[in-house]
Amino acid sequence: MILGMDLGSNTLRVALMNEKLDLLKEYEYIIGAAKNLSKSKKISKEAISLLKNALYDLKNQEIDMKNVNAVATAAFRKAINTKEIFDEIYSEFNIKFKTIDAKEEARLSVLGMKHGLSKLGLYANNLAYCDLGGASCEVSFKNFSKSFDFGIISFYERSLKYISKKYNDFNLNTKTRDKKFKLYGLIKDDRLRAMAILAFKESANAKSFLKKYKCKTVILNSGVPTAIVALKQGLEYSEYQSSLINGKELYAGDFLHFAIKLYNMSEEKAALLLGKKRKNYIVAGCFLLYALFEKQKLIVIDEGIREGLCIDFYNKHK
Predict the structure, then answer these.
(1) pLDDT digits (tens, 9 = 90+) for 20-30
(2) Residues 30, 94 contacting (CB under 8 angstroms)
(3) Is the entire prediction scored with pTM above 0.85?
(4) pLDDT tier for residue 177 given thresholds of 50, 70 and 90
(5) How far does Cα 252 stand from its chain's mean position?
(6) Any idea what the Cα angle at residue 31 is, between residues 56 and 199, rounded to 5°?
(7) What is d(CA 250, CA 262) in angstroms, rounded to the nearest whole number?
(8) Are 76 and 82 in contact (CB under 8 A)?
(9) CA-CA distance, 175 to 57, in Å (whole number)?
């Protein structure tokens, strides 16, 4: 058996798989590594503590960590204290985290998503893959991938600096005019509207990349689309199961609908549905995905880097 650990900019996701690529156990912990990273350039003490607590929890559940493939992504590529943190983790848990580049991150994420699709018997030729994380967004198509410098945490923190009047004079082109004007009618809160409109600017390059390859179907993983699928099914955070998420379809309009609904929801109810301290980041991510997609078919798969790590290990050791 192999344990795949994906230490992302917002979560630690762990998968235990056997040589038949059956998922035996899965875990997810909110870490928030990218929080305030753009300002401090460091992973916070709070995030380090949450990471260690998560690893202690796994250890207390007697999870065998002898065969572990552990990687870290965008936030840890950017932080200046990554080596110090990983030295501590190795000393305390004997787990050696490796920081991977954006290209490898995309490859492993797509490997996991393709595995999820194959289990459902879903195949298509003209697919794109999108993994929106806490500090970056990877978009892939066939053998091409590109990483974009926005994620749900980094975008949310940048959006706090703006108010809507700064964007009243946006040059609206024919492709985004209707969607942006729609925001003015639906969103009365100035700060929320500013965030929504800023999302178009943040995601513009990624949208152009998708348009270039004329992808009609996009496979989505990561926390925002999986959370929205769960919300559409009326699931609470404690009831979440990947088997109820995989293969479900979303529309671009779903992200706008739930962004507004979640923003107006109490913190207590949002925590019940999404998990603690996720509300603002999910709202920000919803606006990014609403801006990014138009009429593509969107299929959600809750498999990604952690599964990709296990699959990659077994592929190399056959």
Answers:
(1) 999 999 999 99
(2) no
(3) yes
(4) low
(5) 16
(6) 165
(7) 17
(8) yes
(9) 48
